[in-house]
Amino acid sequence: HKHEVLFDWKRPIADGQLLNVGAKYNNNFIHSYDGQWLDDFEFNNSEFRHRTQTAGVYAGYSLKTKAIEANAHVEYDYTRMQEKNLHDVIPQARFAYQINSQNTLTASYAMRIIRPTLQYLYDNKVMGPYTLEYGNKNLEGTHVNRMALAYALKTKKVDFTTTVSHINVTDGFNAIWMDVDNIRVYTWGNEGVRKAIEITPEVLWRAAERTKLKAAFTALWDERIAYPIDLFNPNWGFTGRAGLEQQLPFDIQLNLSAMVSKGNTVDVYSHEGLSYTFGGNLERPFLNNKLTVSLAYEYKKLPVIEITQGTYMGSVYTRHHNPNTVKVTLTYQF
Question: pTM for the complete prediction?
């Protein structure tokens, strides 16, 4: 169960200036069962309950002139979880300078918190021939700090953007592994450190009145560190994306997309092998745009996980799945 209450107030305080203040409350409650796998059968033998409550207040200020856009935002969160009291200050800031009608420079900083999901909290044991897994109900959130510089060029035919980002994490979720009597036992902690640099050029080409082409490529240097066990896993990875938007006769919209990636880090022990996805969809409105019918197809190859640290080294397949997906969607707007 997830419940959220939000109060948000905005007020102009001068020409091009805006003040924003607010408060929020979140109540997340998980109620599930403790599942154990024994001899290829699942047994539910106990209940699992976990509640997280967060109350927060925030304030923001924004400024907009002919050449400058700037905003700053700070939020304070109080979280009660498993009888723990957590205090977080979450700042964000952005500054953009428009050099002329076509060129813009932007600098930004943002912190965000990733709360642990059921995978990390679940107070259970997953038992296989050689594995025991325990959740950790005392996990705190992960604080992700991101600083970025961006350059944007906008012309009649082409939009081009290049972004360079630095990512720093000091309390990430990390697996803690132990080998006991030839059985691997692991749980989760908040000792994960991440240092990453990401470079992403993107381009949008309006090739014709009804045709758009998109492409993006991300090069990522990503190092995961576990200081308590003296493990370091630096790695290069990349992700490439491309897409086509084409308006066809009879109001039919065609969208094609493809993505390929390799080497992106999973954790301090491993990174992903090659994966790729491609597909497309046809979409057409009916009944004066009230009804939309969409037919989509996707092929997805999941990556192999390459384990390069620890006592076991090799490749592990993520899971078996059907790589083909066909979906028909009908949307009606009243």
Answer: 0.78
Judge contact between 113 and 56, C-beta under 8 A.
no
**Residue 314: left (phi > 0), alpha (psi -120 to 50), or beta?**
left
Q: Which value, to the nearest 10 degrees, does the dihedral of the CA atoms of residues 172, 178, 183, 184 take?
A: 20
Burial class (CB in 10 A: 0-12, 13-18, 19+), 145: middle
191 CB contacts (<8 Å, ≥6 apart)? 171, 174, 176, 226, 227, 228
Helix (H, G, I), strand (E, B) or coil at 228: helix
pLDDT (tens digit per residue) in 152-170: 999 999 999 999 999 999 8
Q: Identify whether the C-beta of residue 31 lies closer than 8 Å to the C-beta of residue 49.
A: yes
Distance CA 251, CA 120 (A): 47
Measured between alpha carbons, how far is 97 from 74 in angstroms, rounded to an integer?
Answer: 22
Q: Measured in whole angstroms, how far is the alpha carbon of residue 56 from the centre of its chain?
A: 22
- Chain centroid to Cα 11, Å, comes to 31
Per-residue pLDDT of 5-59, as tens digits, reads: 999 999 999 899 999 999 999 998 876 655 544 444 444 555 667 778 899 999 9
Single-letter residue type at 318: T
